[in-house]
Amino acid sequence: MELSLSPTAHRLPSTIPSLKSAIVCTKATLGFSTYFHSIGLQHHQHKCCSIPVSKRPQRPTSIRACTGVGAAGSDRPLVERILDLKDACWRFLRPHTIRGTALGSFALVARALIEHTNLIKWSLLFKAFSGLFALICGNGYIVGINQIYDISIDKVNKPYLPIAAGDLSVQSAWFLVIFFAVAGLFIVGFNFGPFILSLYTLGLFLGTIYSVPPLRMKRFPVAAFLIIATVRGFLLNFGVYYATRAALGLAFEWSSPVVFITTFVTFFALVIAITKDLPDVEGDRKYQISTFATKLGVRNIAFLGSGILLMNYIVSVLAAIYMPQDFRRWLLIPAHMTFAISLIYQFEGGEVGGINE
């Protein structure tokens, strides 16, 4: 899933047919990537203009020269092969999605603790870290199962991913996703009770039907974006806050800040869901995967996603103005105004408008 940071470079030939075309493409890609970088919408750079590129394949620097991890007959030292395997497994986890999961979890846990500082105990530290590990396992399962069933598409759209690049075997990938699912379910069931376990299981189920045939809901744009928004938006935030209050011995109840955080992140997840396929139009069309980008066009979806983000920032500023008792105006207003102005500036500069199909 996508609902997350070293770019993959493509070497241009010495003769470029159109300098203007190259400038527009570079500006569009860098500008759009810079803005959406932190929320995991774009993990690597992709070609967005029809500029000829060298036939010589380029590999990310994180991939060693010899990518046959554990290949039979290899003369490479065991230590190097172990390091290669570790690197492939780490890329398999899609680190940018882990950062988003961890950041959202820390925010909700911190919110619950700020509200009840008198209930904080050192004994809860182990439970907190076990919960974070369970979330990482759930995230690893979802992004992993997607890579297993998207090998052909990834060879076109994301050739740097470990299975598509030949750095991780399908058998090893299956071992990892099974481990993630079992470990996550065990940790949640043992530490957080049946209700949180049911939410966690629902998240794994939605991640499964998103990628796995015969349902493979990623083929249907509306279903795909609803699944991503639900898992990365509502389920993550509601579940973490509920589990934190339960660990503190408190019954669940909504508060204005928590409603704000959950709503804000859910809309962010909506943006992720509709724009995550912008760089993948070529492979999705080739393998008949219907996305908003393939149906409505890259430019239209870029504007739609940016519009939703702008609305998110504006509503955040209004919430701080009209609910001063619940929010720190000195922080919320300047921060979201800065984000909104940055987005508008990119529109005026043509970064988003310069994206081509």
UniProtKB/TrEMBL annotation:
CDD domains attached to this UniProt entry: PT_UbiA_HPT1
Q: Which residues form the signal peptide?
A: none
GO molecular function annotations of the record? prenyltransferase activity
- Per the UniProt record, which residue ranges are transmembrane? 124-149, 169-188, 195-213, 219-242, 254-274, 301-323, 330-347
Q: How does it sit in the membrane?
A: Multi-pass membrane protein
Gene Ontology CC, one term: chloroplast membrane
Subcellular location, record wording: Plastid, Chloroplast membrane
**InterPro entries for the chain:** AtHST-like, UbiA_prenyltransferase, UbiA_sf
State the UniProt keywords alphabetically. Answer: Chloroplast, Membrane, Plastid, Transferase, Transit peptide, Transmembrane, Transmembrane helix
Give the protein family.
Belongs to the UbiA prenyltransferase family.
The cross-references to PANTHER family, in alphabetical order and at most eight, read: HOMOGENTISATE SOLANESYLTRANSFERASE, CHLOROPLASTIC
In Swiss-Prot or TrEMBL terms, this protein is called: Uncharacterized protein
